[in-house]
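Problem 3 from the worked examples.
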Amino acid sequence: MNQLLKIKKTVALDNGSSCRVLGYLGSGGQGEVYHADWQGMDVALKWYYPQQATPEQHNALKYLIKIGPPNGNFLFPLAVASSDEITGFGYIMPLRPKNYKNISDLIKRRIELSFKQLLTATVELTDSFLQLHAKGLCYRDISFGNFFIEPDTGGILICDNDNVTINGDKTTGVIGTPRFMAPEIVRREANPDNDSDLFSLAVLLFYLLFLHHPLEGKREADIKCFDLPAMNKLYGFDPLFIFDGNDNSNYPVQGYQDNALIYWAIYPHFIKQLFIQSFTKGLNNIHGRVRGSEWRQQLLRLKDSIIECACGAENFLDETQLQQAGQLQPCWSCQQRLQLPPRLAIKHPTQQMVVVLNRDTQLYPYHLYTNRKNELTAAVAQVVQHPQKPNVWGLKNLSPDTWTFAENGQIKSVVQGQSVSLSAGITLNFGQTQAEICA
């Protein structure tokens, strides 16, 4: 510990300022990380081991600082650090707040999230990587260690961004983390790029939703010595999805791999289809992988489909199952038949969104506006309870726009702060979209 920098040491930054080391935070494969003060602001300072402090890494940092982060979820480099007294260099980045926990804490059940919070995190992740790829960049190392989650909100932060490169860059460097690398990377047939990022993202999403690895079924359970050759075969040379509909030889083992079995039964058909595509067609065919925009759209749809049971458990509206059976399946927690709550069917030019209206449901700009699909914060509507009539619920307008709807042959307005009753058949006009309340 503390082999590279001493506490209270001051190092220079390439923006003309300096920072002062306050404490040691930890170390990894590339260097050590410290808590530092930069002009009165708490930051993290990463200092590379000598063998990692290459000219290529220095140039990469300069480039990342120049272009800036894709969005506020990335703890991107802010300035390069150096010292005449110490070999090598480092960089400063925003310091992760203490209330953010490593995603591995969720997988190991050290922290618990509701489905609503969990899906907020998955949407934030997919949206962040969609924006990263849109900038022509590749992350290279999507895995547990590089992501943090705020348990109360589902907000996420992405660290270790010094490994981000231009997509298609063939220079050597970090190629990924075992269990998360795409098969072609495991086989050393390709360098990390956006397509391998998409595979790693799908693995991470599967872990988050199903608390299990998508390729670890009976084959993994039968391995006696989990050494490098065994891992290479399982993840690279002979991978098989645990829920492959054409080959059940790698199906999860009951009593050993129960998480996958339990959670696979909970989620609706449409989200499971994305994982089936990712780990069958997209397993060895990069063109078959699910794009970031599709992940974001369908994860938002999944979040909108949450149904709250009377017992308090969150379930999901599976429209395919509802059409086939004519009724909702029982609650996964209490096994009582679920009651279908009011829904809002919103008509967009290219799709129809169905939002389940629970007692705390909020609508966001992407729900109501066709030109604001990337705006996932600042609610524009919220389900509220009537102050004098507890059994009456309404949709409150939180936006500055005026809504309209027809009632008894009259056109009525709903201005900011007012509510419209959740009565079946009412058609709301939000300006750019229309929606019908279904009960």
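Problem 4, a separate protein:
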Amino acid sequence: MPSMIQRLFGAKQSVPAAMMPASYMHALGQPVWMRRDYGRFAQEAYARNVVAHRAIELVANGAASVPLKLYEKSGDHLRCMPQHPALRLLQRPNPLQGGASLMAALMSYRLISGNAYLHAVGPKGDAPLELHALRPDRVSVISGAGGIPKGYRYTVDQSAMDFPVDSYSGQSRILHLKNFHPLDDWYGLSAVEAAAYSIDQHNQSGAWNQALLQNGARPTGALVVNVKEQGGHLSEEQYYRIKQQMDEQFSGPANAGRPLLLEGGLDWKEMSHSPKDMDFIEAKHSAARDIALAFGVPPQLLGIPGDNTYANLAEARLALWEQTILPAVYELAEALNNWLLPMFGGQLQLKADADDVPALTLRREKVWERVQNAGFLSDEEKRRMVGLSDC
């Protein structure tokens, strides 16, 4: 049944659509390509930067470790469903992955690109038989009216497949998880993009260290020509001969410490930067802290010195779970409730069960203490408050 907004502004046009510029509306029905390079994000952040890589692993694997429990609404109560096709699908989504592996991949894609796509495979109109996480760089949004996509296009090499989206309900065989982006209607903002400058600085610091090691791990220097003996300059033949000797005999780790023999009035002058001018190590640590901040990971958990926000590692882990991992898990469970469970029928609901997470022991102990001291609660009420159920 059309919503009130759809009745006011047309069957396929909502208030946002009525306010969209003509240039935007002209693109309806066409794929909207990401303006950012996912391949570069994956290479520079996940594949080449140890801080971003570890931060993504911590968040993605932590989120994948939280079990999801399935309930069916019965009147005013929720009845646990330990055995259900939807739960079995989430535990074994496809022949190549388990549930935790799929969720870790889904979270990693979202952290890297700001977008994640889950494909429900199966006959149209029936419950899905498999779930697959799709690479974000292979999926493009086909723009539609009213801020609802017309569909999704999955492209591999020269082959493409379109998955339509219902214009009224927004249902599709593709679930699109995206971060908030203030300037993009279709795609989410990547944490890598927000931390791009810091990631580049950290990578360049590593490249600087590598180049320094390959050049003998010593400061750069200059060959100074004696004015009295050489007239202050070398002939072209002398210049290229000395340059060739330096490249072949004194560069690289194999030649580290090799004595430099100078002749013809040449002198070696060391050149280095003072700590005040360069402050190299602190600049690298500062970039690493900014990267950790972008992914919502306390720097202490990544071994980055100079950050004492939390008194100990236990508090830092608790902050990671409460501020980053659990909100992501709750959002994912809500998305699955709205997208996946209606395909199975009934009044089903997924809930994330964080009671067995070791990092949340401090929070759980405080809850138990408060419940234990609440004499006005019945035993059944206390069981529900501490998360004990029949699952």
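Solution to problem 4. The chain has 16 helices and twelve strands. Residues 282 and 306 are 9 Å apart (CA to CA).
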